[in-house]
Amino acid sequence: IISGGIESIPCIKRASDMGLHVVVSDGNPNAPGFKYADDILIASTYDILRTYDLVQNYNAKIRRIDGVMCCASDVPLTVASIADKLNLPGIEIESAKLAIDKLAMKKRFEVDEIPIPWFNSVDSLKHLLALVYQHDHPLVLKPIDSRGSRGVLLIDKNIDLEWAFNFSLSHSPSKKLILEKFIEGPQLSTESIIINGKAHTIGFSDRNYELLEKFRPHIIENGGELPSRLDKLTIDLVKNLIQDAALSIGVKNGIIKGDLVISKGKPFIIEVATRLSGGYFCSHEIPINTGIDFVGAAIKQCLGDEIDLLSLRSTKNVSVAQRYWFPKEGIVSSVDGIDSYRSHPDVELLEIRVKPGSEIKSINSHPGRAGVVITKGKTLEQAIDLAEEVINNIKIITMKKF
Fold first, then answer.
1. pLDDT attached to residue 381
2. Is the Cβ–Cβ distance between 36 and 103 less than 8 Å?
């Protein structure tokens, strides 16, 4: 498993529970996931050559590796490259390259007539100024190769375009940007497993952007909820669109995580990723909502094992809500009230990512969120109410930095 980050831990633990010997690679010697691994390799998740050198040595001298995957880490090219070199199951390298380059992905979707927002590459500040002048607001400026909402900005008539250009560019490893039309409408996260060319879309989560105005121009998601409120007709359209998107980028066996927006009853793809999602969507929310062991299915797939399609059918429909903490800037002095909810039967996950002494900076991307809670309820309203109660009652107290 490539990545030992905190959100990879459920995947590492699930693989261990399945009786597998789990090797985890990460560039951080103190990666939290290492605690749950049988063996570890120290290599940046983005360093394909270093990862391969270590994997090749391990495979030849210590233990044969039978499968490779990632979870909550946007490194499909590293995964695909290792799978290719070791002749293991996995997506094609070309598919992985499309998945990590938003511009190349959109161009492929455009050729294949996949519904997407209008987009254009941005070559310079002068080019950005011209594009913004030519198109109605709002627009979205983003790096073609970043993740976790880093460098993603909502462009309106009030924004300083020179600042926006430089800020977004600073978050792009390749120094390339893309400008898109911001389509108004409900946004949706999906999670699908593609088996022999057929997409089985299991997870549907309505994305929550209630704090959009607070964080503008940064686009910060505040969680989501399952099941989706969308009607069956729209859900079926989404399933068909994910199927078409998988075919477009050449994924015949693998995972597709989708970000979509619904406008006038029609779904549009914002982007897709060829990996298991972060935010505990795949590991917690989907199993709680549907009863489906989605991570287990993904692990079987990367090993080349047959997946019983009956195991991908929902056995329940439990309402689930997820929300995040956004404390004030400063130094954390205390975290109060957490003990009241640790053993609550409907709190499925409670994770505070800061502690006294931690510095809270201005939040401009998803990694800046200070914690997450996932709750369940008999209805969506009950699940949401409980999630918001937890957020409101567990206080992350900060003091100004002197």
1. 97
2. no
